Amino acid sequence: xxxxxxxxxxxxxxxxxxxxxxxxxxxxxxxxxxxxxxxxxxxxxxxxxxxxxxxxxxxxxxxxxxxxxxxxxxxxxxxxxxxxxxxxxxxxxxxxxxxxxxxxxxxxxxxxxxxxxxxxxxxxxxxxxxxxxxxxxxxxxxxxxxxxxxxxxxxxxxxxxxxxxxxxxxxxxxxxxxxxxxxxxxxxxxxxxxxxxxxxxxxxxx
Length: 206
What we know:
Order of helices and strands: HHHHHHHHH
Oligomer: single chain
Shape: elongated
Largest sheet: none
Number of domains: 2
């Protein structure tokens, strides 16, 4: 049980540290792990109560990451996707605490954050990963897949409009401008919609 508590704590730490650079994230997790092991060694036992006391003195993993981000200025390094990464961090922390496996966490991240960073590539890979999960039902996986595929087809139609319709077909923005805006938003709507749907579906069962 003690080792499980440590693993859960470090999982929350790693999840919350998503906004940090990968190298620093790994270093921070290793430093905290070493601190925990050293404290337990000094205590002379690995009983559950002792582990709880050590973790309580360390504080919440999210607070450790916040202090690290403030000290290093990591929070301002990626303003373009800061909001998305913070959302992902919160989801991952909750997921780890509720016993999600890496498959579910990866699928939701690829669907949501992946839509911002990788356009259609993230949601497509995310929905494929979701099918490897044993925690979502076949029906839930189909809904997520239909969301991605359906809006993907709409994307193709809009791209066809972009390349075939004359500029300024309508007053104001025109058909071209409207299609361009919708085309840019569709991957985000598809990925975030499917990701949130799967996340909520899984949360309701816990």
